[in-house]
Inverse folding.
């Protein structure tokens, strides 16, 4: 994303922050899980994140084995969304918190819409919201 920034001489210039990167739905689901844990002040290990991801609707097609979760965490590190501490706990970066907050907001709005407009019970709304939030 390009933005305008004044240099030391007061002259405007364009700074390229990299391409606007759309996250995959799988990455968004991982980020949503990590964000919800972050809201509860929890910093999971890969194994703990694996257990949390098993609660995501199976229709999302997420890999929930420790190796597949570890692979996604490495990918998210390269994307600047998470950091792995020496204690092996996964922490969201500032970019990860911002992205997670956006996804959580879309998810909660989708749940509210499905419950309010379609009269669906909350669990079914949660499953449907997962589909809607990525659109």
């Amino acid at each position: 994303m390009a933005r305008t920034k004044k240099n030391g001489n007061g002259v405007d210039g364009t700074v390229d922050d990299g391409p606007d990167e759309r996250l995959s739905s799988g990455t968004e689901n991982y980020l949503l899980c990590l964000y919800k844990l972050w809201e509860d002040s929890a910093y999971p290990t890969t194994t703990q994140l694996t257990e949390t991801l098993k609660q995501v609707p199976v229709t999302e097609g997420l890999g929930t084995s420790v190796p597949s979760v570890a692979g996604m965490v490495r990918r998210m590190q390269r994307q600047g969304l998470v950091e792995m501490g020496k204690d092996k706990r996964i922490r969201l970066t500032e970019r990860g918190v911002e992205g997670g907050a956006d996804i959580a907001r879309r998810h909660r709005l989708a749940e509210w819409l499905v419950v309010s407009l379609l009269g669906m019970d909350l669990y079914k709304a949660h499953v449907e919201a997962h589909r809607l939030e990525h659109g």
Residues 94-118 form the longest helix (25 residues). The first strand starts at residue 2 and ends at 6. Residues 13 and 104 are 34 Å apart (CA to CA). Residues 1-19 have pLDDT under 50 and may be disordered.
